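QA checklist item 7 of 12: single-chain prediction sanity check.
[x] sequence parsed
[x] length recorded as 307
[x] structure emitted
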Amino acid sequence: MNVITPKFQARNQCPLCRSGDLSDHLTLDGIRIASCRACRFTFSRDTLQFSEIDQFYIDGYHDRRHMDGQRVNATINVELLHHFCSDLSGRSLLDIGSGYGFLLDKARSSGAQRCAGVELSQVQRNYSTKELRLETHGQIDLLAADDQFDIVTAFEVIEHIPEPREFIEQACKHLKVGGSLIIGTDNFASDVVNVLGRQFPKWIPHEHVSFFTSTTLKGMLETSGTLRLAGVRSFTPWELLLRKWLFRLTSGRKGGKTYSYLAERKADSQSGYRYFTLRLVANRIWFKFAGQPSLDGEMMYIHMIKA
C-alpha cells in the first residue's frame, strides 16, 4: 500500500462556539490539537480540506480490520438500540456511518420496517447494498428533504466530523418529531484517557478530529433547540482497562500507544482485527456487565428525543 503524507489546513475557530480563544492541548505527529477556552471543546486544529476528508473515506476503510471491527461493534450497538428503543417492530431506522451494514441487518431482524444507511466508503456501501440487500446512500443529501425516520443513529461517527453541530442539525432534519437520536462516541475526559494521556490509542487526529467529553457532547445536543435528553449509557471496553492497568504497573512503559500517521495507515492495510473471535464473544457480555447509566465510561451513548 502506498501511503501519501496528507497536507493539512489550520483552523483558528472552535467548531462549536466559533470562539478564537484557543489553547494548545497537545501535538501528535505534527498535528495540533486545540482546546477552546470558551466552551472547553477539544478538536484537531490541523485537518484535511473538508472535500479531501470525504474522499479519504470514499476511497478507504475497506480492509478486513474495519470489517471485523464493525462486526464486533454491531453486537454492542444493537444492545444499545434495544435499551433506548425497546420495540423496533414497524419502526424506521437511519444509521449514519452505517459501514458494511451489520447493525442495520440486526435491526431488520428485530422487526424494524425500514432500515436505511448513509456510508461514504464505496466498498462498504457496495457490500451493504449487494450482499445484505440494504438501502444505503453515499451522502445524507441524497435522501429526500422530507424523508424522516423514527430513529437516527450515529455510532462512532461524530468524532470524524469537523463541524459536529452542523452534522447534528442535518441528522435532525431526517428525524420525526418525537423520534430518537442516538449518538455514541469516546469520552475524552474518562479515567482511561486521564491515565494514558497522549498515549491513549484513540488519539487519531487525522481521522478523529472532534474529541468530546460528556459535558461538551451533552451541551451541544441540548443547545440545538430541537432535542431533549431521554437517556444515557456508557462503559469502558475491557481492552482499554487492560491498557490502563498495564500502563500504571509499568510506570508508562507499556500499555500506551504513540500516535503515527504512517504507522496507523500501514496497520489498517496490513493487520487484521486482533483477538477478533474473543472480542466478538466477550464484548457483548462485557457491555452487559460493565454498562452504567451515566456518561462516565470511556464509550458514551446519549439518547435524545426531537421535541
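[x] summary fact logged: The chain is about 35% helix and 25% strand.
[ ] second reviewer sign-off
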